[in-house]
Amino acid sequence: MMDFVSLLDQQARTRPEKLALRAIAQASQPARDWSYAALAEASRKAAAVLHGQGVRHGDRVALLCLNTPGFVFALFGAWRLGATVVPVNHKLQAPEVQYILNHANVKLCIVDGALAPLAGRIACDTRWMSTDSRAEGMPFLDELLEQAAPQADNGTPDAQALAEILYTSGTTGQSKGCLHSHANVFHAALCAAASTSLTHQERTLIAMPVWHSSPLNNWLLGTLLMGGTAVLLREYAPKAFLDALAGERITFTFGAPIAFLAPLSAVTDVAGYDFSSMRLWAYGGGPLGADMARKLAACYGSDRFVQVYGMTESGPLGTVLYPEEAIAKAGSIGRCGVPGVALEVRRGDGSLCGPGEVGEIHLRSAAMMQGYLDNPGASAAAFDANGWYRSGDLARIDEDGYLYIVDRLKDMIVTGGENVYSKEVEDVLATHPGVEDVAVIGRPHPEWGETVVAVLSPRPGKVLDEAVLCSFLEPRLARYKIPRVYELREALPRTATGKLLKHLLRGSQD
Length: 510
Known about the structure:
Oligomer: single chain
Radius of gyration: 23 Å
Structural class: alpha/beta
Number of helices: 14
Shape: globular
Largest sheet: 8 strands, mixed
CATH architecture of the domain at 1-157: 3-Layer(aba) Sandwich
CATH class of the domain at 1-157: Alpha Beta
Number of strands: 24
CATH topology of the domain at 1-157: Rossmann fold
Distance between the termini: 54 Å
């Protein structure tokens, strides 16, 4: 299987003048463009710059950047040297970044100039370099690229060599580093491109943070794989997102559901934008209900929304729900794995689930991680004896074979012998007009095994009363699913990407 260094060089030979990368104009900088030939040249110069900073074969290079060209240059430059890239969430706090840099034994961290103050609060042996804007005391990538001579070819990376270490969001504890080879990354991009029919004519807007596995592996690399154009929006904002979609004549984009929902309240004239160039809109991170799917179609003038499901460990690859299924099967993540992914839903004893049953999703593909960095116990627990990845996601299968996520396996509550799926209870509580945010968890109980606990954040100016909440739930949920304990918080603990940290709530009693 080809690697992306070879792929980029091939594209540079066969379509040298085709636009590969575009950085949208900012207040202080005009739009910038790179053809495939120019991108390949920039990546060779980046390899020379990194080599000059001491990066060698097998080293790790962290990328702590917004959606900037420097991220892409450094990505390919590191791969040309046989180094491994470690994309880092730019929303993390200094101790979280420090953990990743130390855990991954990072040699060099390339940081967006706007994020450079983080470096001064981090204690590690990592070297630093800024990109896109100067940072005091750091080499400046943009300047060094102008001065550099292209690095001589070092050959192509071995397909099984480590390409990326992608860190999980840490919703159940300390973040884990997922190890992905060059073959894993190439397969992820290939399958994502096939599942969404990307072509050389694509203009893909990268609006979600490029350090996320899906914007990076599926859509940035998937677009370059097909010979299309990747358009970088430095940082998501509702109006900037709409301006880019219309002004750049985008054909494909991906976002979390909130990326498409936020403009509906932040911008008064969404209908005034010209989205006629859009071929497909992809979203992931949670399915949409039928009413919301209809609302998006009406507001954006398109019913071409596709739901994708996956996780960092899987590349991320998983399932797809196509536009023609979006209303009839609203809330589903799709019927089967995307091309190149095998998927099964299994009972606790390993046997396959049938219609109406709930089981754990198991996945297998050539994009699957090799394991977790320096965590053999977690790596062994993640796979069964036949190499299937245990996702930890519980899904119900309907009569047509479509899957509906009902909970995380670790979040399922067993009370009095009955299974309570926390997501089901959360979804109902979230419809209460006084609830801003909610998490449902199980806590140990001497008689029932576990008791159902709802941790709630009220909307501004609203008062949540236990009796009123119980009355609200009684006609909507079976009695054993209704929380016995309600706790109010000003805000619930979440990761930088918005995922609930339920493990922090389970141990809290106040």
